[in-house]
Amino acid sequence: MKKLLQEFKTFIARGYVLDMAVGVVIASSFTAIVNAAVSGLVTPIIGLFLPNAESFAEWAPGGFAVGAFINAVIVFFITAIVIFAVMKVVNKAREAKKKPEAPAAPTTKTCPYCLSDDVKLGAVKCPHCGSDLPEE
Question: Which of 24, 35, 53, 113 pairs as cysteine with 59 (C-beta 3.0–4.6 A)?
Fold first, then answer.
């Protein structure tokens, strides 16, 4: 139990909890904006095409709240599309930040006499033809 409490303390100290809290607050605010846009703009337009319904969200044939369900589905898809777009931008920015790896330093050289390209850098004689190699 003591180890578990220590791990929890370490988890909180790293700042992950604060990052998650900020993400949840922003996500809930964004969801409220999307809900308002869908219920205030999208569903009234769809409701114009339905008989006997002031708004699409109120459409309930046979007592089933079909309009409210479809309204929630629309909100979900709009939210998912926006989050997908944001993540694409974030991932592209992360990739741009990465520094390209420097090419590895060569470990071999080419023999000027037999043209073997697997002669170790510090070698003074070519292991293939036995020629004395010039110093670098």
Answer: 53
What is the dotted CATH code of the domain comprising 2-97? 1.10.1200.120
Query: Residue 42 and residue 48: Cα distance in Å, rounded?
Result: 10
Q: At a CB cut-off of 8 Å and minimum separation 6, what does 11 contact? A: 17
pTM score of the predicted model? 0.51
Q: What is the mean pLDDT of each run of 10 residues along the chain (136 residues)?
A: 86 76 86 84 77 68 84 85 87 83 83 85 86 79
Q: How far apart, in whole angstroms, are the C-alpha atoms of residue 2 and residue 17?
A: 20
